[in-house]
Amino acid sequence: MALFLMLLLVGAVLLIMMYNTIIKKRNLVKEAWSGIDVQLKRRYDLLPNLVQTVKGYAKHEKDLFERVTQARTAAIEAKDVRGQADAENSLTGAIKSLFALAENYPDLKASQNFIDLQANLARIEEEIQMARRYYNGTTREFNTAIQTFPGLVYAYFFNFKEVEYFEIETAAEKKTPEVQF
Questions:
Q1: Residues 71/72/77/80 CA torsion (nearest 10 deg)
Q2: Which of 29, 127, 131, 172 suits a disulfide with 35, CB 3.0-4.6 Å?
Q3: Cβ-proximal residues to 156 (8 Å cutoff; 6+ apart), any chain
Q4: Is the pLDDT of residue 178 over 70?
Q5: pTM of the entire structure?
Q6: Hey, where are the domains in the chain?
Q7: Residues 178, 181: Cα–Cα separation, whole Å
Q8: How far apart are CA 26 and CA 143, in angstroms?
């Protein structure tokens, strides 16, 4: 009888430990997403300044400025990981087009304000990449925990769902933007 109670106690402790492990991994995923969110907000806050600076030199590029603004708005309003990734694809393409446009304006490229904004954006992009790698790593750990035994039993009973990776690199993003006048 004592052996049975001891085995039952050990089993209960193991079940609790496994449940707590899954919860910790889920919380790390949430924390990692928060890190991405912070970096994206920094980028969104910088973009209006960048657009205004370029507008001063390239007033006739209204369509491009509207595209950047619409892409930024869509990214801010995204509701889930997939929506955020899609919106970031559009925004990244619009930003690349903006920088490609700047190549045609030597005065703009030489402007200290533009240079500073470009450097800030480059730093933010690096931070986004690091945050995205961290998020995808924690997502991998969580998904592995709920897809392997005994975690899959917990996932079933406690309704843990697989988390999506934050992937924004697409064939369109890898393509060099074309600027036409």
A1: 70
A2: 131
A3: none
A4: no
A5: 0.82
A6: 21-174
A7: 10
A8: 9
